[in-house]
Amino acid sequence: MAEPQYCCQNLGGLTESKSPFQRIISFDYHDGATAGAAQCAVCAGAYKYDMVDWDQNQDVRVFGFAPLPPDSFMKLTALCAALENPKWPIWSPKWQFSTEVLRNSIETEIEQILGAAGPHEFVLASRDLAQEIIACRDLTEIDGKDLQTRSSRREAHSQRDWFQYLGLQRS
Ligand SMILES: [Zn+2]
Fold first, then answer.
1. How many domains does the chain have?
2. How far is the CA of 19 from the centre of ligand 1 (A)?
3. Structural domain of residue 52, as residue ranges?
4. Of the four listed, 9, 42, 53, 79, which is most buried by Cβ atoms within 10 Å?
5. How far is the CA of 7 from the centre of ligand 1 (A)?
6. C-alpha–C-alpha distance, residues 72 and 47, integer Å
7. Residue 91 lies in a domain
8. Tens digits of residue pLDDT in 137-146
9. Of 11, 10, 47, 9, whose CA–CA distance to 151 is shortest?
């Protein structure tokens, strides 16, 4: 795959660009939350992402991105590799455990790693996070707090219109 043009640190304001995220772990299975972790192929920076909005067909989805401390992505990969071999660029680890004890210990560690994420830095619309960025916009402090509050309450579909925020038409 060709080297992505942009690093995760320069995505704000971009439209119709190639995604720099070439390693994505999806925890869709985990508690039904639509969230995961993504790593930039340019700088290796890692983020927690949460789905915050989607269009009617759930085709285009908007995700909030919050930075994770160094090594987080490596630790998440190692934890999930206990379940099955990683599959890149998008990996939804099979959420099956040999024992409940193992499940609890892995879920607790994953929650701790994702819980260490900083405030959301940008929102990004995409049909496929490993392929394309339809639009991306940096969050102001106030917008970021708004998103943070909602995602911590797990209100996936917030009342906020993030399509409008990104200047996109909702299909
Ligand atoms: Zn980057």
1. 1
2. 10
3. 8-164
4. 53
5. 4
6. 9
7. yes
8. 999 888 887 7
9. 47
Q: Report the pLDDT averaged over residues 4-32.
A: 85
**Is 3 domain-assigned?**
no
Residue 21 falls within a domain, yes or no? yes
Cα-to-centroid distance, 6 and ligand 1 (Å) = 7
**170 assigned to some structural domain:** no
Q: How confident is the model at residue 29 (pLDDT cuts 50, 70, 90)?
A: low
Q: Of 110, 5, 117, whose CA–CA distance to 70 is shortest?
A: 117
Cβ neighbour number for residue 46 with a 10 Å cutoff: 26
CA–centroid distance, 46 to ligand 1, in Å, is 8
At residue 85, φ and ψ (nearest 5 deg) are -70, 140
What six digits make up the tokens of 88? 């890149």
